[in-house]
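Aim 2 progress update. The chain analyzed this quarter is reproduced below.
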Amino acid sequence: MTTTAEIVTFRLKPDTDTAAFVKTAQGLMPFLTGTGDMIARTLSCDADGLWTDHITWTSRTAADAAAKAMFERPEAGPFMALIEPADMVMRHAVVHLRPD
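Predicted structure tokens:
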């Protein structure tokens, strides 16, 4: 299997409280870690308000399965409700170097 990075960029809906959004994002962690396939996750935001959710998975298959299952999870609803859907872009990349 090939370690895979899932990189999702997005913007929040207007007037979304950053701290509330981060707390909502944290609420997804039990599901993500519970898959047994998530290696790491970082969530960042640049000065222009573009967020990046970067998750490292054990494989592309695991990333795809988690993405599909996430939308069936009740805790995903509040998270997705704060994101502008038109601004969301998801991509995957093979990881060639990572800290161990």
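The mean pLDDT is 95. The longest helix spans residues 60-70. These observations will guide the mutagenesis experiments scheduled for the next reporting period.
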